[in-house]
């Protein structure tokens, strides 16, 4: 019988901790507010998907070789110690030459926008409800800066 100890409310067996359970308890909820009736809540394609899909709340044309700012009409309240990284959808990148400009969703609860870049020679049409990007929730640290001298 393996010795069992408690580690911040998690069972430690044979010196290992179920990190998934630790993370689930640390990041219990992602609270989201819809800012319009066109807003679609983020959703994961599959139970084990690493990211939440983000959807357009407006019809937008991304010009050939151009860019556009696409509204999701969502305000997202991220758990402390996390940030959201807006990432491209590989299928849009591969099939349509659409890429996402680097985006970070902070704890400020501002409306979330997605910058789309069109690397093709034809305009790209985005419709309300289209899956345009992914939101990856990542843990982060904000260390204090200490200046050092030679």
From TrEMBL:
Listed cofactors: Mg(2+)
The protein's name in its UniProt record: Deoxyuridine 5'-triphosphate nucleotidohydrolase
Family matches, as Pfam families: dUTPase (PF00692)
The dUTPase-like domain, residue ranges: 38-147
Keywords from the named record: Hydrolase, Magnesium, Metal-binding, Nucleotide metabolism
Species whose genome carries this gene: Solanum chilense
Top-level class of the enzyme under EC nomenclature: hydrolase
Pathway(s) it belongs to: Pyrimidine metabolism; dUMP biosynthesis; dUMP from dCTP (dUTP route): step 2/2
Transmembrane segments: none
Family named by the database record: Belongs to the dUTPase family.
Catalyses which reaction(s): dUTP + H2O = dUMP + diphosphate + H(+)
Domain of life: Eukaryota
């Amino acid at each position: 019988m393996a010795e069992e100890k408690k580690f911040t409310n998690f069972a430690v067996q044979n010196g290992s901790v179920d990190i998934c359970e630790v993370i689930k308890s640390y990041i219990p909820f992602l609270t989201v507010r819809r800012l319009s009736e066109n807003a679609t809540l983020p959703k994961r394609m599959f139970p084990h998907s690493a990211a939440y899909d983000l959807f357009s709340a407006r019809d937008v044309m991304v010009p050939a070789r151009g860019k556009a700012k696409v509204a999701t009409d969502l305000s997202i309240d991220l758990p402390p110690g996390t940030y959201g990284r807006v990432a491209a959808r590989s299928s849009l990148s591969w099939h349509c030459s659409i890429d996402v400009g680097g985006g970070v969703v902070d704890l400020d609860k501002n409306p979330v926008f997605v910058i789309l870049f069109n690397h093709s020679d034809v305009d790209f049409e985005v419709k309300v409800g289209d899956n345009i990007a992914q939101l990856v929730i990542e843990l982060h640290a904000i260390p204090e800066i200490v200046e050092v001298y030679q």
